[in-house]
Amino acid sequence: MGNPMKIRASAKDGVTEIKILMSHEMETGQRKDANGTVIPAWFINEITAKLDGKTVMQAQWGPSISKNPYLAFKVKGGKAGDKVSVTWVDNRGDTRTDEAAVT
Amino acid sequence: MVDRVSVGVAAFLAVSAVAATAYAQQKDAAQEGIEAYREALQDGNPAELYEATGEELWKTPAGPKKASLEQCDLGLGPGVVKGAYARLPRHFQDTDRVQDLESRLLTCMEALQGKDPKPYVEAAFTAPPKEEMIALAAYVSGQSKGDPIAVTPKHPKEQAMYDLGKRMFYYQGGPYDFSCATCHGQEGTRIRLQDLPYIPGTKGAAAGWGSWPAYRVSAGQMWSMQWRLNDCFRQQRFPEPVYTSDATIALSMFMAANASGETMKTPGIKR
Amino acid sequence: MKHAMKPAAFLAALLLAGPALAQTKAAPSWGPGADDAAFTRMLAASFKDKGIARIDRLTQDETQAFCSDPEAAASPNAAETRQRIEAANMATVKWPSDGKWLGDWKEGEKIAQSGRGNTWTDKPGEPNGGNCYNCHQISPAEISYGTIGPSLLQYGALRGGDEETMKAAWAKIYNAKSLNACSNMPRAGHMGILAETQIKHLMALLFDPASPVNVKTGPVK
Q: Where do the Sulphur oxidation protein SoxZ domain residues begin and end (chain A) (predicted)?
């Protein structure tokens, strides 16, 4: 399930800027704990953003993305009140979706 | 012996001044790169995630008394969170102690929720009880973001705490003879590439005090001021300060009062 | 922690530093003498042993006690005390046992790079680093250096390598307080941070003509 994302979206002159902060450990699978045991890889590998139900951004991620990732991008279109929905899926099959309204 | 040596020292200083000028340009380029990186970090501070967790902890009933922390008095009256962090540490009538945020949170958790503060004091900073403290600190500090730091020791115990903090700041000890002042007692210096705030001055004190709690990108960790101080003492080669002990509150009072009038920028973000 | 110099118990140290301060300030508001009992109580209640970092590290020797009130320590009235402290620190310096000043500069560079040792997260028995780059510019290739201490670029090239120069550098590394009572630099030899061979390697980093510290640099644009 994970912790909630922080999503902010604002429309200006026909362009919507979407900023997403995700809560995720993003373990690379390269690190070892104090006992020398490898910490298993655990990271978001798929992320999708929708604006008013239409997919506007889709990405495949790997273990090189930092812990608690921050993602910002701009899309054409969108207006105040439109619904932004973001979904991530991680390599354990866990997933989370959060929503916000464009301001 | 002493005379010959002091001649050597004078020559040594003169030479280093020349070398410093020659390499000033190279230094500036490195400095610019670091500043650009720090600026890029400002957008999307993951500290917000911890603020959200802290707010939930603040508002959710917990402990033997099944109460939330919403009636906690952080100095501005029960339930007032907005602006409270910018006015801490301060003297509290009910405990008759000068308290920083984290010690005050423990008081509220004990009084309102019936929780035993001991496990919170003793847990490692990466253990769940401390994660609660840090999230709460992130939340409360975020409610003072942009406020002027307003800490002026007035109560005799506040004044005594400031003096003890100043003395703690200059107190040398351990195998390296370090005090806080060894690193934070001169203007414009750095360790490796890390700039060191000059804590006795207003601007430096604000750069330090006004930016913690902070999210540390390289470690992927949220640090409270207590954790910051704890790690300073570790690097100072001192024994470990007890969580929310008077030495840490005294130093906090010294920093906060020196920073008074500057802006609170909490929670911050660090490399 | 080794104290070759006479260790002073905390309260004794306060008594030593007290009179020096009283000469410069009528009513000390915060330094030694202000409220020693409260400060001692605070220290005792605020710190605990962790790993190799024990609370006895808070017990000051005379140098540490004197330098903990920097304003008083720097005042003209304290000149005699400063000289006495410097002389006492100079007396602790152990010169190289075989008369040789220089080791291997490559080893010296590794020691200068390492900041490890003596914290509560360090294990006992492992060799300590010198922490040199934390405060000094040394080899030109290392751009991540601190500025609390002076740049050491061209150290040997500018000074040569006569006996007196070597001696001053050795004393500075072994016990920095022998030359400046309240230097920010740790007393690497005196406090047992670095062993004799490690100090020799650092000396080589500073003085060996082949060390990157001493490579000729082109004209600065």
A: 8-100
